[in-house]
Design a protein that fits this description.
Chain lengths: 209, 349, 208
């Protein structure tokens, strides 16, 4: 029992921290750069990724006993595409503005390396429940990094947070950092976030030794 | 290098950088003369900020601060508009020193020219502060020596530089009698003013026009530039190849009747082109090291500048071009040395 | 073992594809109409916003659409490309769709014009992808509200977008600060659209 809980706990910490998909594995960067200019866009994108990643990892894991090894990549892509299309269609039908804001990036979750990577590395060789948890927390690891980036970009670039004006930053004394709203700003923010988090990790590892 | 840190000197002596600083003096004087004492304050402020940022990073690596940082900050300050707000300036300097120099490992290891990369960052980040507001140059013989700044708060704002007006056809070159004999500071978008070509050239040469702080006068740039040229502080090959290629290209396009190319002289004299050619493209770290590569490097920059200045939506053509040139510098060097190596080995056979 | 058979992967792939595609196709069928309606609705919303006294912020989708179909009539021979707002058969305003190249991507919008073909009743954009925080401000009320009540100039360009801070005439508005390129292009889009439409409607009016 204790062994089991500690193992599922390690799945969680791996996904969120030690093996974080964004700053450790450096996966799924294109969407990180593209959608993080507003916190709301980022949230929707992350929810879409959590949905897709956990469920496709789960489905891959359910089918793993039957899937012939030589066509497993095709099957994985098919499953991922299935969930992504569902998210995409839902957004188009019920939240057209958001669908317009996110542009092609929801559809591009299909090629998001995190999804394929987790399905290949974990879902393919582990039982469904674990695959689901692994997918969920990897997506959550992606989410919290993206939210940090998006928060800074929106406040510095637009003076707002979730669309609400932030005092001082939306005022006349704050010169808005236009570059933060544009894709290059994401490069710098991502670099800084990776820098900070990896330094923290390095310090912790040194202490552990 | 000593590891104790106690015997560490704060500054690393770099004679070449001192030459460059000396050569920048005429431009600094020009900045004060045309736009007031605030220019000097801006230059000193930039140097202080740049020094502190570099000090922090070099301490981490247990190295000394390079004198090159002052060249970076001075050049950066000189290519800012006179109305530059201090926070924009500070952010630009921090970006220039931190992200284009220190993260690559400090002096001698950067890919891009730090001053230009910093300028590029603030240019994209604060387009209003960088491109929409200009101050008029002071008139009279004593210039702006008696004033802090020439930008009077409410109305010295939205305007454009002569080169931008020329591109937007607000200034039309002509020689007729009703051609204006001085360059208007502010022109409405739908208007167009005919300006005598020699007037334009004279103003570009002497520098009594609106523009970035230290770069309006071709004469002052040339005084410093020729000093660099004679002392061989800056690569002669780069300067010659860049200026000649740019002049020839513009003149050819002008003769071919391509709009809105203004011809070789206004192009070379205007928009701080000479400043870029003498002081920025020749940065010994981000430019190529082999002679043939330097020639190609100059031609690449000249071609890109011509295209961006005349046919794109941006006005900062030279800035982007030098950064593009920087990008090609390592591979040019690599290509030249490998061609030479092959040549040598074939000769030996 | 069935998995070892050579035909198994093909059949397996086929079955899975068929299974998932069926669900996706069914799903798109159900939501397809709604997606189409959304696209139409963003245009209808812009038309209503450009015309006088029709648009309210908190209208539901259905009410929006109802209002559009009830009060706005599609372009006919007389109004050229413009949608019209009529009251007792009399035209009281036109809504002219315009489009053209923006700074990054096409800009599409609607200009509302009074029956006298001189006064602007409003302007709205339903598609633009300008720089957020700069050019994209053209879609915000602070910019579009300026157009309300302006008159189309008869000599020179119909409307002018002037530098921020410039003195405004009857047919001028202020540009968004810093968004020079977007403003220049938008000015061209608006003026080209207006000029073309005006020339088409006046020649028709004369023929009658």
């Amino acid at each position: 029992m204790t062994a089991k809980t500690s193992r599922s706990k390690s799945i969680i910490t791996e996904g969120l921290w030690y093996n974080n998909p964004v700053f450790k594995q450096v996966l799924g960067i294109c969407s990180t750069l593209a959608v993080t200019n507003l916190v709301l866009n980022t949230l929707v994108m992350c929810v879409a990724l959590i949905f897709t990643l956990s469920l496709s990892s789960f489905t891959v894991s359910v089918l793993r006993e039957f899937t012939p090894r030589n066509i497993r990549m095709m099957i994985e892509t098919l499953i991922i595409a299935f969930y992504v299309i569902i998210v995409d269609v839902l957004l188009k039908a019920f939240w057209p503005e958001m669908s317009g804001n996110l542009g092609p990036y929801v559809g591009l979750i299909i090629t998001n390396c995190i999804v394929m990577g987790r399905c290949e590395a974990y879902g393919n060789s582990n039982p469904p429940a674990k695959a689901f948890i692994d997918g969920f927390f990897n997506a959550l690891g992606y989410t919290f990094i993206l939210l940090i980036i998006a928060t800074f970009r929106e406040i510095l670039g637009m003076g707002t947070f979730l669309g609400f004006a932030v005092p001082y930053f939306s005022g006349p004394n704050w010169d808005k950092w236009i570059i933060m709203v544009m894709p290059p700003g994401a490069f710098f923010m991502l670099a800084i976030v990776t820098w900070i988090f990896r330094s923290i990790q390095a310090v912790k590892e040194d202490k552990a030794k | 290098m000593s590891k104790t840190g106690k015997t560490l000197k704060i500054l690393r002596k770099q004679p070449a950088m001192r030459h460059v600083l000396l050569a920048l003096l005429p431009c600094i004087a020009g900045a004060v003369y045309f736009f007031g004492w605030r220019s000097l304050f801006v230059i000193i402020w930039s140097a202080a900020v740049g020094f502190i940022v570099e000090l922090i990073f070099t301490r981490l690596r247990k190295e000394s601060v390079s004198e090159a940082v002052f060249v970076t900050t001075t050049i950066f300050a000189l290519i800012m508009p006179p109305t530059i707000p201090l926070h924009v300036l500070t952010i630009g300097i921090i970006f220039a020193v931190m992200f284009t120099k220190e993260v690559f490992g400090g002096f001698g290891r950067n890919i891009f020219n730090p001053a230009l990369a910093g300028r590029c960052f603030v240019y994209v980040c604060f387009p209003v502060a960088l491109t929409a507001t200009w101050a008029p140059p002071a008139g009279g013989t004593s210039g702006a020596l008696g004033s802090w700044t020439t930008a009077s708060k409410p109305d010295a704002v939205t305007s454009a530089t002569p080169m931008a007006y020329l591109k937007a056809k607000n200034i039309v070159l002509g020689s007729g009698e009703n051609a204006a004999t001085n360059i208007p500071f502010k022109i409405d978008r739908s208007q167009s003013v005919t300006v005598n070509k020699t007037t334009l050239l004279k103003n570009l040469f002497l520098g009594r026009i609106s523009g970035t702080m230290g770069v309006t006068s071709a004469l002052l740039i040339l005084i410093g530039g020729i000093y660099l040229f004679i002392t061989k502080t800056a690569s002669r090959t780069i300067i010659l190849s860049l200026v000649i290629a740019y002049g020839v290209l513009n003149q050819l396009l002008y003769w071919a009747g391509v709009e809105p190319v203004p011809g070789a002289l206004p192009a070379v004299l205007g928009g701080g082109f000479l400043f870029g050619a003498f002081f920025m493209a020749t940065d010994p770290i981000s430019s190529p090291r082999t002679e043939p590569a330097k020639v190609i490097y100059g031609i690449i920059i000249a071609a890109c500048t011509t295209v961006i200045r005349n046919f794109s939506i941006f006005n900062g053509g030279l800035m982007f071009s030098i950064l593009i040139g920087n990008m090609f510098a390592p591979i040019l060097d690599y290509a030249i040395t490998s061609v030479k190596a092959r040549h040598n080995s074939e000769a030996k056979k | 073992m069935i998995r070892k058979k050579a035909w198994f992967p093909v059949v397996y792939m086929f079955c899975l594809t068929a299974f998932f595609s069926t669900i996706v196709i069914g799903f798109t069928q159900v939501t397809g109409e709604r997606v189409e309606a959304n696209e139409k609705l963003s245009f209808e919303k812009a038309v209503l916003a450009a015309l006088p006294g029709l648009y309210e912020k908190n209208l539901s989708r259905l009410e929006l659409h109802k209002r559009f179909t009830e009060s706005v009539s599609p372009p006919d021979n007389f109004s050229a490309a413009a949608y019209t707002l009529r009251q007792n058969g009399q035209i009281i305003a036109y809504a002219l769709p315009v489009s053209g190249r923006g700074f990054w991507a096409p800009i599409k919008g609607v200009i509302g014009i009074k029956a006298d073909k001189k006064t602007i009743t409003g302007i709205a954009f339903y598609q633009q992808n300008e720089t957020p925080g700069l050019g994209a401000e053209i879609a915000k009320a602070a910019f579009t509200e300026q157009f309300r009540g302006k008159t189309i100039s008869t000599d020179g360009p119909p409307l002018n977008i002037k530098r921020p801070g410039a003195v405004l005439g009857d047919s001028d508005v202020h540009a968004v600060t810093g968004a020079t390129q977007t403003s220049t292009r938008l000015e061209k889009i608006i003026n080209d659209g207006l000029e073309e439409w005006l020339s088409r409607t006046t020649t028709q009016g004369n023929a009658k």
